[in-house]
Amino acid sequence: MIDEFKKFIFENNLIKPGDKVLITVSGGIDSMVMAHLFLKQDYKIGIAHCNFSLRAAESDKDEEMVRKFASEHNIPFFTVRFETKTFAKKNRLSVQMAARDLRYKWFEEIRKENGYDLIAVAHNLNDNIETLLINLTRGTGLAGMAGMKPISNRIIRPLLFASRQAIQTYRDQNNIVFREDRSNADTKYIRNKIRHLVIPVLKEINPSIEQTLNEAAERFSGFNEIVTEYIAHLRENISEEKEQHITFNIGLLKNYLHNKVVLFELFKPYGITNALLIDLIKVIEGETGGQIITDSHRIIKNRKEIIVSDEEFIKETSYSINNTESFCNFPGISSARNVRISDTYEIPSDPHIACLDSQKVSFPVIIRKWKAGDYFYPLGMNQKKKLSDYFIDNKYSRFDKENIFILESDGKIVWIIGDRIDDRFKITSSTKKGLLLKSKRKAMIIKPVR
């Protein structure tokens, strides 16, 4: 086991010379065996233990045993106590997911605070194939079939090569003390159900099922790398990343509507699931304005493109601005100042910057969402135009129109923020003092190229 442990670390480049490793030790057989294996190596290590307060006195005994082990071997020891059930209820999580979120966040905090380079967790080969079967049962893409990785960011899994039986054998040979979590036998949990009920049946069919599934996971991992590279290249060719959103060219996207696997992988980062694929296809093939709201993104059709946005919409509908300094209270304005206008003053041409005649702007002014019936005199024109018509002429998408704000003074529109000012408020030869407003590019609508 020791030689295999060293070999696995070397072949997967898990630990570099000089790295400090924070070992996560629950007190169970896997983590205690991992701790013993690390003791046999020449690594700088520390031990981190979480007490989740789930098993009363049993949890405290786990903590005490791990603390004693760290003390006996002169290893830095870190521990924390969580009220896991309270956290789970407050955040509407299962107890298992709550424990996972709590421990990984705390592990990372301890790693940073104490100068550790890596966090070692004791997932083994059986954990890996159980994860594969769970993902397959629930429905997954190639990434889910690939199982766990030996290294992910700063998390390493140096026991991923070892079966549960091999770990048990090593424990018996070295008389390693550990504590058994009795909940590991409770089949009300999905992982335990797979472990105790499903895998034994599979072993009747194939006695080497663990090794077979592990090899399959390795192949899927290789396939996943190939597919990931292909999808990244494809996404680069058929989409364009804007400052606030991403647009997909529908003409190019339609070439892949027959291949749901490709479509799923393209839109998976935006919250699309298998269950939403049919709806996505309908939006792509449907009329302008069709949309899907996923858990993380909004996907909407606008003429010949699909717009994907993860920006939070500004919830306030209006802001009252009493002076120049107060403009920055609006999330979409980055700066506001008065400027002296002279014959040599150069008026900015950037639509995200409005240069206005200060004498024509009366405080308080209002920043608000546009509404039906709004009109203005577009810069350079001496006749009024409805905003709704202006938006159509300038190919505003539904997404754009829902999120645009306008600046209003004395009932007159001064500026479509981030786009065009009203001709009545422009700088003229008689202007002495100007008001210079700059909108935040990422906070306001980025209009399509005309």
Description:
This protein has helices at 2-11, 29-39, 57-72, 84-91, 95-114, 125-138, 142-145, 164-174, 190-205, 209-238, 250-253, 260-267, 277-285, 387-393, 398-403, and strands at residues 20-24, 44-51, 77-81, 118-120, 151-152, 155-156, 239-241, 245-249, 291-293, 298-302, 305-309, 318-321, 333-340, 353-357, 365-369, 375-376, 385-386, 405-409, 412-416, 433-439. 39% of the residues lie in helices and 20% in strands. The termini are far apart. The protein has three domains: 2-219, HUPs (Rossmann fold), CATH 3.40.50; 242-309, Uridine Diphospho-n-acetylenolpyruvylglucosamine Reductase, domain 3 (2-Layer Sandwich), CATH 3.30.465; 318-439, no CATH class. It is of the alpha+beta class and 450 residues long. The strands form five sheets. The chain has a six-stranded mixed sheet with strand order 3-2-1-4-6-5, sandwiched between helices. It has a five-stranded antiparallel sheet with strand order 7-8-11-10-9. It has a four-stranded antiparallel sheet with strand order 12-15-18-19, with no helix packed on it. The chain has 15 helices and 20 strands.
Features:
single chain; 450 residues; Uridine Diphospho-n-acetylenolpyruvylglucosamine Reductase, domain 3; 3 domains; six-stranded mixed sheet; five-stranded antiparallel sheet; 15 helices; disordered C terminus
- Stated plainly, the CATH topology of the largest domain is called Rossmann fold
Indicate the percent of residues in helices: 25-40%
Query: What's the end-to-end separation, in Å?
Result: 65 Å
- 3D shape: elongated
Q: What is the average of the pLDDT values?
A: 88
CATH class (first level) name of the largest domain: Alpha Beta
**What amount of the residues lies in strands?**
15-25%
**Domain module count:** 3
Main sheet characteristics: 6 strands, mixed
